[in-house]
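>> received
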Amino acid sequence: MATSHESLPPRSRSSRSLTRLPPVRLASREELTAAARVAPLLRVAHDLAAWTGTGRPVTSGGELTPADAAAATGALDVSAEEFRAAWAIATGTGMVAVSGDQAGPGKRFGVLESGRPDEALDTWCEAAGAVLSQENLDGLATALYTAGRPVRLDALFEAYAAAVGAMTVSTGDEKLIFNDHDADPAAGSGSPAGSGPASGSGSPNEHGADPAAGSGPAGSGPVPGFSPGLEPGLELLADLGVVELGADEDEDEAGLTVTLSPIGLWAVRERLSARGWRVPILGGSADGGATAVLAVLADYDADDGEAEIAAWLGRRTPERAAEELTDAASRGSPGLRGAAFAVMDRVGAAAVPAVRQALADPVLRPHAAVWLREHGEEASLSREDSAWLLVDLGAGLLEEAAPEDVVAELLPELPPQAQAELVAGLWRVEHPGVTELLTTLSNHHPEPAVAKAARKAAFKARSRL
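>> returned
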């Protein structure tokens, strides 16, 4: 019977969890602020604000006159696209204030040189919102987030063009699919280019800035008159410091690659988080309780999961860690219980007293008994406990894994008839997840005898309710 906890964390990632993305490691606040201050496009917006000076005439739409726009473009040595983006950023962030038919210095003029760190980062966030409010650029940035590594430009554009053309619908989202060379099995679905994070409003994050919401263009949608195509738009993202361009030296023919910069990764993550996507941070649970670290293990691969556990254990004594884990297990879901006792393996012998106390909890007793026996301690385990534990482990796997994967992993390696006999008696187990588990076994078990036994047992379990 599958009663060992050894292989549970990180738990299997569900194929049904389409809005979960791989964990990322974020730069420090100081690094983010430093990157914001030197972002080339933000500097151009500042220089444009300085060039505008005081009392510069504007059109009824709040734009510079054509003559002044041409003069500014030449004076700053920028392209027309860069000028339009810089003007949108300067006015949207408050570097330039437009009042009536005049433009002049805004409340944030000079913030890059003399403003507080939070002000510089806030300004960059609003500038990023002005650029990422364009649907195509928002979609590209999110595709890069899901990839989690440098992507060839040609593959990125082809994937985006295919997604826009096909309008693949999953959860109402438009998905970006990379070819075999650029595939990322863990990436999941990309952000909807037409309903991406730009449409959501977030709350202030740990750095005191919010790239998902803000004044001006960052929170009010696309900027009028500013709608770059993919290639010039990607150049604008690079000029703003959202992405970094490089070269793929591993290919026979070197090609340009693009990846999110540290500040771009942070900004896109905040925008996705504001829309309810699961976007975990590596090391983000180290200061939290046991529930926090257990909840994120399903999002991590083996190496990242072990690193997260090690960081969490490093902040507390082994005895304290064991107490927190058993407390979280007593109040958590089946999946969290299984993960808690698996993490307990990393605590070792110091966890024995806490696990022995868990024997008094009916929900934890089977888990605790198996854990103690696996670690050389004496503990009784009845047939009823073993059956309950099998159902609890199965219910935990169903929280994260596809049904067919649960079926393949859960039952012991016995002949089909022996498996059928085991499954036939599970309906007697007093567990809230027993009916769902039996239904899963009946629908997905490859052996007809086992599937039939599960079907009959599920009927009995439902009838008992």
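>> The chain has three domains: 18-277, 290-383, 411-464.
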